[in-house]
Specification:
- The chain is built from 14 helices and 30 strands.
- The protein folds into four domains: 188 residues, no CATH class; 101 residues, Beta Barrel (Lipocalin); 80 residues, Immunoglobulins (Immunoglobulin-like); 118 residues, Immunoglobulin-like.
- The strands form eight sheets. Strands 5-6-7-8-9-10-11-12 form an eight-stranded antiparallel barrel. A four-stranded antiparallel beta sheet has the order 13-15-18-17, with no helix packed on it. The chain has a four-stranded mixed beta sheet with strand order 14-20-19-16, with no helix packed on it.
- By secondary structure, it is an alpha+beta fold.
- Helices cover 22% and strands 37% of the residues.
- The chain starts with 11 loop residues before the first helix and ends in a 10-residue tail after the last strand.
């Protein structure tokens, strides 16, 4: 089972086999020992084999999602018959033998993790036009080819999608000349098939994720989480995880997931957290001591949270302090999360801050902090016996800036079979230190409101039609289709300013973001 690989939407008759495979559990996700034999059986009819290499296939490296998209295209366009077990084995084999090294995938992980409203890679204006008009540049960066193979990909685009020139608004330039004569060498240099990183990674033994992990996470607009994850290897070669988490209010949030690890580090899981179905796109660190990534709702990938975990036996370490800031002269409760938190160790946040521990375990300390009115503002070293963490906590005198994130967001109308795409905003505070630099304080409670972004948005009353803003900063768009109440029975699109108002004592500060509410999205591939 390709656990966690995101749903593809298109014509139901074409995609039913894929959707059934992605939605059902299977114990066949372990690497197939005869992967080359499977390629020979299912692929060599079109991809000529010579000396164990398959034309086109053996000259490309991709992420698990990339190989899923390739096999889906083989089924949809070329009518290849693959049952889910064979497809899973092929993806696992190809991702393990022709994947990306961790360092190669790092810059584009936002696309794998389906992070909404993240700025795409900046690869220069030419690639932004030639490739980025139809899909993210991250999608190109998450595969590796030499120049000759990049040229073949350009031919493939034209052969299978002959309207590409018009869909990409390519008639403003000598599109084909650029695509065939200039870009292959450029892409081959940027994203080559052979690389030192991949050569080194292929010789490294896979890290085993089984064991106990200390977890922290944050759901934008929601809550911060902490706790433990117990990961075990199953008989099938996959993994099962059991989560015992809590939020800062003390509410328990248990969960389970099952996962496959591709390429030695790419964790793809599906499960439940606090009764909510989830997908997990995580990455193990190269040394196997840390896991980072994102979980999300499979029906609304824009809704989810960040995830970070370290091994419980990693050694004394402070992973996080929640919340991460306290105002000078104030008192508040904090939760310190880490490993090796000695049961008798003194908790310290540096000069001017007193800490009284009210409960403790080996991984979590709950404490009441009191900061002197003249405590020096800035980032503090936090220690608890042998455990320490730099930059995990801040003392501040005042809030000097509020930034709304994302600064530019997109939401999509919903209706019928296509659900709306929401947009989650957060108000992030910063303080200005005596030297003039700004220091982040983290998310702050805010009063949220909407305003028309410009004069046209005001004239057409976009605020009244585009949707509504919840108290936690989550925008929910309106319904799709004609609206007789709008001018010319237009739909409910809008151009909005999202405003967060944060109070700091007697002063109030505001931050703004730009939100475009646009039409439905009909095709959502695993890498957008």
């Amino acid at each position: 089972m390709l656990k966690g690989l995101t749903r593809i939407t298109a014509a139901p008759s074409m995609l039913l086999p894929v959707l059934l495979a992605l939605a059902s559990a299977s114990a066949a996700a372990a690497p197939a020992p005869d992967g080359a034999a499977l390629l020979r059986s299912y692929c060599s009819g079109c991809h000529f084999e010579k000396d164990g290499r398959f034309e086109r296939i053996s000259s490309i490296r991709k992420t698990p999602e990339g190989w899923v998209m390739t096999l889906f295209r083989m089924q949809q366009v070329h009518g290849i018959a693959l049952d889910e077990t064979v497809r899973d084995q092929l993806v696992h084999y190809l991702a393990d033998t022709q994947g990306l090294a961790p360092s190669e995938a790092q810059s584009s992980r936002f696309a794998l993790e389906r992070r909404a409203n993240v700025q795409d890679l900046n690869l220069g204006p030419e690639l932004a036009v030639m490739c980025g008009r139809c899909h993210t540049l991250a999608r190109a960066a998450l595969q590796r080819r030499d120049a000759d193979e990049w040229l073949k990909l350009a031919h493939t685009h034209i052969g299978q999608w002959p309207t590409t020139e018009y869909q990409a608004s390519g008639r403003d330039r000598p599109w084909w000349q650029i695509a065939s004569e200039q870009l292959p060498a450029k892409l081959g240099a940027l994203f080559p098939f052979e690389s030192a990183a991949w050569s080194a990674w292929r010789t490294q033994a896979p890290r085993e994720p089984s064991g106990t992990w200390i977890v922290t996470g944050h759901e934008p607009g929601g809550r911060s989480l902490y706790g433990t994850a117990q990961i075990k290897r199953t008989e099938s070669g996959d993994y099962a995880a059991h989560y015992e988490l809590a939020d800062r209010s003390g509410t328990a949030l248990g969960g389970e997931s099952s996962a496959t690890v591709y390429t030695g580090y790419e964790w793809r899981g599906r499960g439940q957290l606090a009764g909510r179905e989830t997908r997990e796109i995580f990455a193990l660190s190269e040394d196997g001591t840390q896991i980072d990534g994102r979980w999300f709702d499979p029906a609304h990938s824009e809704e989810g949270g960040d995830w970070r975990a370290i091994r419980a036996d990693r050694g004394p370490t402070i992973l996080a302090v929640l919340p991460r800031a306290l105002k000078a002269g104030a008192t508040g409760e904090v939760t310190v999360v880490g490993t090796g938190l000695d049961q008798t160790a003194t908790l310290s946040f540096g000069p001017g801050v007193s800490a009284r521990v009210i409960s403790r375990t080996a991984n979590v300390l709950h404490a009441v902090l009191s900061a002197d009115a003249n405590a020096e503002p800035g980032s503090r070293m936090v220690t608890a016996g042998g455990a320490s963490g730099s930059g995990e906590f801040v003392i501040f005198r005042q809030i000097d800036r509020i930034e709304v994130t994302p600064a530019f967001g997109i939401a999509r109308l919903g209706g019928g079979k296509i659900a709306p795409v929401t947009a989650q905003f957060e108000a992030l505070a910063s303080t200005r230190l005596p030297g003039g630099e700004y220091l982040a304080l983290g998310p702050m409670p805010a009063e949220w409101s909407m305003q028309p972004f410009d004069a046209e948005a005001k004239r057409s009353n976009d605020v009244g039609f585009a949707g509504y803003l919840e108290r936690n900063g989550r925008f929910v768009p309106g319904g799709a289709g004609p609206n007789p109440a709008r001018e010319f029975s237009g739909n409910n699109v809008g151009n909005l300013a999202i405003v967060a108002r944060v109070r700091d004592g007697e002063q109030a500060l505001e931050g703004r973001a730009h939100l475009i509410v646009t039409v439905q999205r009909w095709n959502t591939p695993p890498i957008y």
